[in-house]
Automatic annotation (TrEMBL), chain A:
This is Alkaline shock response membrane anchor protein AmaP. Keywords: Membrane, Transmembrane, Transmembrane helix. The chain crosses the membrane at residues 35-61, 81-103. Residues 1-24 are annotated as: Disordered. The keyword Transmembrane applies. The lineage of its organism: Bacteria, Bacillati, Actinomycetota, Actinomycetes, Pseudonocardiales.
TrEMBL record, chain B:
The keyword Transmembrane applies. The chain crosses the membrane at residues 64-83. Residues 71-137 form the DUF6286 domain. This is DUF6286 domain-containing protein. Pfam families: DUF6286. It comes from Pseudonocardia sulfidoxydans NBRC 16205. Residues 139-172 are annotated as: Disordered. Keywords: Membrane, Transmembrane, Transmembrane helix. It comes from the Bacteria.
């Protein structure tokens, strides 16, 4: 469980709250996409360069030289100390960057607790699971919603709420969208000391289909 | 594609870290034990050097390796670019609330509405934030209830009428009506294709 969050009341039209609610829609894959894209780009450039050189695009004489060019080997041997230091630094950077990427990609999404302002001498912490259960339970009471799931997302300084609702076949989507902030989120805001959390609502259609044969 | 990228990212990170560890071990070993004669602790550098010394750039294995590496890099790049979110945004009901749905959910809603029509026997729908495409099959014309003194073997009769909208128009109207009801942030284009069925309903 992460450290409790102590957030101030967010104004109604706070652009930061809007941005945080957009970020809460789903876990970001931006970092993973950048890593995979960067490695893919490097592999593409190296592979294309190798193929072009091998097919003689840069000259047939160059293509007839050995892979481990003696000129390059001699240059490295003449600067052995510098070559070793550069290689060592590159390898250390690879180790650190690779481990950081792997750990960040494998780390579970945070679920920050919510600290409710209860006065100078009192600390009230609502756990993330309690917030999620309360909001999801309230959402399930709305007509048209067959299932609901909520979870806290973000970090301790900037928490947000992600609410996923599954609509029944006869649900009025516009009505559900209108009633969620008015009834579900307003009740949660009252319950948690008047603090307004950025919220991302995900609407899914329930898969329970009606009869295909009329 | 996002799942693939989420799986690939830690694997590639671990692979890079492993290469880095090997490099550090070998460089430090070569530094501390210069008497090994070029052979590494874990990697047979000497054998690799001999192979690379004799291998020319113009040989077939190098060409194949370059092409394979380039293709793998291109596939990784495509996977990274295609792994963006495809959410369909809805109009936010409050400033601090973002509402989205998935293309699959939108397609399911459209499919339910289209299939609810009597003239439609089946439909498949694909949807995105920009376009909704419906392929439906059903009967053209209007449904005439069976008359009490009509022939008993035809429970319903299908009658084409010049003033009656065709199946495609009817399906399009249903989809447009649903899109009117949904608080979508951007209205998608609607494309309808129909296959008219013959015979009784």
């Amino acid at each position: 469980m992460s450290q409790p969050t102590d957030v101030g009341p967010a104004p109604a039209a706070d652009p930061r709250a809007e941005r945080r609610s957009r970020r809460a829609v789903a876990r970001s894959a931006g970092r993973e996409r950048r890593v995979v894209g960067l490695i893919g780009l490097i592999a593409l450039l190296v592979g294309a360069g190798t193929a072009l050189l091998a097919f003689g695009v840069f000259g047939s004489g160059r293509a007839q030289r050995p892979l481990l060019d003696p000129i390059l080997v001699d240059a490295l041997r003449s600067q052995a100390l510098i070559s070793r230091i550069v290689a060592l630094v590159v390898c250390v950077v690879l180790v650190v960057a690779g481990l950081v990427w792997a750990v960040r990609a494998l780390a579970p999404e945070r679920r920050p607790d919510l600290a409710v302002d209860a006065g100078p001498d009192t600390s009230v912490v609502v756990t993330s699971s309690a917030v999620a259960e309360a909001v999801a339970g309230q959402a399930r009471t709305l007509p048209g919603i067959s299932r609901a799931r909520a979870r806290m997302v973000g970090d301790e300084r900037e928490p947000a709420l992600r609410l996923t609702v599954w609509l029944a076949e006869d649900a009025d989507v516009a009505e559900v969208c209108r009633r969620i902030p008015e009834e579900v989120l307003a009740a949660a805001t009252d319950a948690f000391g008047g603090r307004v959390l950025p919220v991302a609502v995900r609407i899914e259609a329930d898969t329970a289909e009606g009869p295909r044969v009329r | 594609m996002r799942v693939l990228v989420r799986i690939l990212a830690p694997l590639l990170g671990l692979a890079l870290a492993a290469v880095g560890v090997l490099g550090v071990v070998e460089i430090v070993t070569a530094w501390l034990q210069p008497g090994r004669g070029g052979d590494g602790l874990l990697v047979p550098w000497r054998a690799w050097q001999r192979a690379l010394d004799t291998q020319l750039w113009a040989t077939t294995p190098v060409k194949i390796t370059g092409i394979v590496l380039g293709v793998v890099g291109l596939l990784l790049l495509i996977a990274a670019l295609a792994a963006r979110r495809h959410d369909v945004p809805l109009r936010p009901p409050a400033p601090h609330v973002t509402v989205t749905t998935s293309p699959q959910a939108l397609a399911r809603m459209v499919g339910r509405r289209v299939r609810a029509a009597d003239a439609v026997s089946g439909a498949s729908v694909t949807a995105s934030r920009r376009a909704v495409s419906v392929r439906a099959e059903g009967w053209e014309g209007t449904v005439v209830p069976p008359s009490t003194d009509g022939p008993a073997e035809t429970p319903t009769d299908t009658r084409a009428d010049a003033d009656t909208p065709g199946l495609a128009d009817s399906v399009r109207a249903d989809v447009e009506s649903l899109l009117d009801d949904l608080p979508l942030a951007h209205r998608p284009r609607v494309a309808v294709s129909v296959r008219a069925l013959g015979g009784p309903r």
